[in-house]
Task: structure prediction
Amino acid sequence: MALNKRAIVTGGTRGIGRAIVKELATKSCCGVLFSDVAFIYNNCDQCVEEIRREINSSETKIFGFKADASSYKEAEATVEQAVEQLGGVDILVNNAGITRDNLLLRMTSEEFDQVINVNLKSVFNYTKAVIKHMIKQRYGKIVNISSVVGLIGNPGQANYAASKAGIIGFSKAAAKELASRNITVNVVAPGFIETEMTNKLNDKQKEILLQNIPLQRLGKPEDVARVVAFLCSSEADYITGQVINVDGGMVMS
Result:
């Protein structure tokens, strides 16, 4: 395969997704330079130019495509556009996600469906749309972003936990289906990462969180992005169907 890989990242404008886009576009991991990235987003049009300015590389192709990740029709269309612009696709990172937290007794069916559709169905949508290209070239790396909540649950997040647990099951099944085509499928499960969501927590809430994290700190989006980059590299060619926690030791099995 070519040294310069071509990646598609969903949910690429904020937090972990933004860090993944920048990591793949600007860093060298294990001898592989990820130079060309197309990211999918649902809002924040100005973020496209912001990310281009932050990466600031004449050697890197960066494309932003606006789409509803929960729609297969839109996913298929944006993948075709991205493949046309990139000249192909070697890597898919499914990161699109939302929260609609509520206690189960109060959770509406709309809140449940929205989270399942964006967090879980989007993984099906983009994986299905991408693999026909990867199967043809007999090569591909797929990394799906889950959460430790999908492993241990969390009060008030039944919808979110279900969607993230579903990603793990989906990924293991896909890994078995696609292994014979030299396509790996792995999962990264972040713990509590410094994002817009955790920034809303007060000091007392953060203190309670840290009591459950052996490393005694929140993670950074870059901590997750570096693991994703490794799984997309040739150094991870013999790794598939695995779940890697990036959580400071919060969940140990």
Summary: Residues 200 and 206 are 10 Å apart (CA to CA). Residues 5-193+221-246 form a domain with the Rossmann fold fold (CATH 3.40.50.720). The longest helix spans residues 109-137.
